[in-house]
Amino acid sequence: MSHRNRQQHHKNSAQSANPWQKTSAGGDDAVISSSNQKHPRATSGKKPSMAEPSGNDSFVKKSEEKFHQAHRKHVESAKKYTQQYESSEDEDEGGSSSQEILGSVLKNYAGAGMDIGKTQEYLQNLLESRSAVCLICIGTVKRADSIWSCQTCFTFFHLLCIQRWANDSISLKRMSHEQQEGYYNNMGEYVPKPALSVHWDCPKCRKEYEKVDIPRHYDCFCGKEQNPQNHLWLIPHSCGETCRKRLVPDCGHSCVLLCHPGPCPPCPQTISVSCKCGQSAQKTIRCSQRSWTCLKSCKQKRNCGIHECGAVCHSIDECPPCKSRSKQKCLCGAKTKEVNCYESRWQCGKVCGNPYACGLHRCEKVCHEGDCGECPMGMPRTCPCGKTSSVAACSEEIGTCGDTCQKFLECQEHRCSERCHPGKCGQCMELMKKPCRCGNMIKEVACHKQLVCETKCKNVKSCNKHPCNRKCCDGQCPPCDKLCGKTLTCGKHKCSSLCHHGPCYPCNQKATVKCRCNGTMLEVPCGREKKVGSVKCRLPCRIPSKCHHTNPHHCHQGDCPACQQVCGLKNDTTNCEHPCGAKCHDAVRVVTKDKNFKPVGPWDVPLEIVEIKRLPHPQCEVKVSVTCIGGHETALWACYLSKPTSCGRECGRALKCGVHTCPKQCHVVKNLNSTQEEPKCQSCTAGCTIPRPKGCTHPCKKPCHPPPCNPCQAPTKTACHCGLTQIFYKCHEFYSDDKTEDELNFYREKILSCGQKCIKNFPCGHRCNSTCHSSDCPNPEACSKKVKITCDCRTRRMEVNCSVARSKSKALECDEGCEKVKQSRTRQLTERERLQKEQEEAENQRALEEYEKKFGPKKYRERKRIQVEETKETNYLLYVLLSVGFLVLAMAVYFILAN
């Protein structure tokens, strides 16, 4: 892209980006909210009018609803487009995955379990493709782009975009300030225009920055390095060093993450502090928690000095007010009532009324404590207007002086013209020339009145287009309620929102973009035809190739891609017989910058000069066999590097000690076939090579020496046999060539026993009663745990050892008591069956009689039937009483035998 096209591209991007546009963090789809749009008068320094015309509320709501619907369709179509097409400017793959990079960044973070969700979210958004978007140009922020990050919302933008944004914002504020004028308020005072505030805001969070804060350099996230290089194994735009920023809130510690975007996570360091009340011992907590609360109650006296606090652990100086109630006297002591302890000093509302020392006047203060003081009527007094003063007894009254009052009236400009009088002065009736609210008319009116004229305001509203037309306006013009009607950035449609200040919302219409050959078309949002880029077309390109190869490719926009075929011509750079194996370089696009370019400001970029050149052949890469200078190997090297060099291997020639070999890298020797030490070989500096005892993995630290080696003193730890305790020992105590295998096993068994009770269980399910040991538990058949055994009928019970219970072939035998219980249960069951049978017979008889009464011949023996029924009921009650008696007797016998 040429310099002129690039400038036009940035200009269109700046015009289409709304400065009051708000986008969610992490590069999500842009969401434009009309409620977040700043009023232009707030920028100029005046307070905006809070009242809006009520007649336009419905129109505003309808226009906002239409805009949101169009915006949702725009976002959905953009998502479909990104799913179906891929941009030709995607970065090359080959870097590590985002999870691996996140792991490498967070490896030094010691705050496991803390909330690092925000930091991890910023890192994830930065690593994922197309998730980071510049809110000014609505373009993807790539790994190699120069960026600037906001210190409040941590959103990053292109460096050139934020520089242009800051300079444009300051220029607009200066122009708006020049157009403002002073005005007269309702008091007739001239209010000058406010002072110019030169600052610029973050496009997202509206954080105010001064002019000196405009970024001039591309820095990493922690600010340690300028122009950080793009590295595949580092977070983009970071220096790879530890962040070391002071954590917020400032606790004295620094961030231990590598240079990262977004806010620093909470402090992961651990500190030992006591609880808030200081009654508990110190406890180790995270520094980010700052304090902790125990469950003890506060023992301090509250502000009443009577009751204890009793609240759960809190700071010493934060005890809540005492809520207990007690009887307290008022300040004067006249009344007593039950009040809250923290309201102990209360006033009853009674006038004091105590006589002063003069005996003529009484105190007029409301309920107070202490002495009433001297009589105020006995002090030096003045007349009502304050012109004359005299000292007289409190029994004498001081009248008016007879002179003019001359007190200032409410207007604070004129004085009272009445004679000296008690009480308040009247309204100011002085005639004076006063300007109206808008300042267009001056008329003579009473001083206490306000002048309002009928002149309509001709000032331009906040939209800088329509007049105010408000009667006698004081300069606070209401916002405009007309349609905007400006041509949108697309250049085809007009804005349908209310008249506003600043750029309009983007166009929500659709446009068609075609490829170069017009064989493929794509529907995109109106005004974004240039930002969409080239439309992918699968038809062959019709432009002839510029090199000596045929270069078939698909239809495209702009210049044809570089030829990817092998050159194949004779390489005249190295003057060898091999043909050139590099990619074709007959027509290569070379971009150079004008060295004599002098930028006007930091937003200017040097002019780029694009040329199509034929580059010389690269150096020959054909492999030829070359032997290293030490004679170790013969390898294939590139043709232009076919000179003997060091292979990097260890020399390996036998030294004079007869044990070791030369450790130097491949070096120059006189005889390539020799295996003995050469003059340039390194002397023996190797360590001990004597084998260590079986099981020892620690090398001997002494230099090369004859055997034996010193015993290994390396400390080692392992778990005991039961796994509850860590056992520490030295390596030579477990692995030694001086002791036999049996001695070592006995020693290991002894030292690995912690001496505590074994945690294993016998096969019977009871815990082993031996100390910590290896292998199976000894004597599982000697378990002495008490268990209970019963007879077959579960009447007899006995408690014996577990080993005895397992040795018994059968349970306890039943005795005479068990037989009596069985007989009692049998009798109860027989009696229950007999009663149940009688009840069934009685029920059948009753049903039969009911049937005969309903369907059989009538029989007039009702008195006899009633007598029979009473007899049956009497027998039934007798049976029930007998069964209950038998049941009670059986229960008594069972409890007697059981005890």
Describe this structure in words.
The protein has 899 residues and is α+β, with helices and mostly antiparallel strands. Helices cover 21% and strands 12% of the residues. The protein has helices at residues 3-16, 40-44, 57-84, 98-105, 117-127, 159-179, 529-532, 731-734, 741-751, 802-807, 816-855, 862-898; strands at residues 22-23, 30-31, 133-134, 139-140, 147-149, 156-158, 183-184, 190-191, 199-201, 208-210, 270-273, 283-286, 325-329, 336-340, 381-382, 389-390, 431-435, 442-446, 510-514, 521-525, 588-593, 608-613, 623-627, 634-638, 715-719, 726-730, 786-790, 797-801. The strands form 14 sheets. Strands 1-2 form a two-stranded antiparallel ribbon. The protein has a two-stranded antiparallel ribbon with strand order 3-4. It has a two-stranded antiparallel ribbon with strand order 5-6. Strand 15 and strand 16 form a beta hairpin. Helix 4 (98-105) packs across helix 5 (117-127) and helix 11 packs antiparallel against helix 12. The longest helix is centred in the last third of the chain and has 40 residues, at 816-855. The protein starts with a helix and ends with a helix. The model is unreliable at 1-56, 84-97, 110-114 and 864-872 (pLDDT under 50).
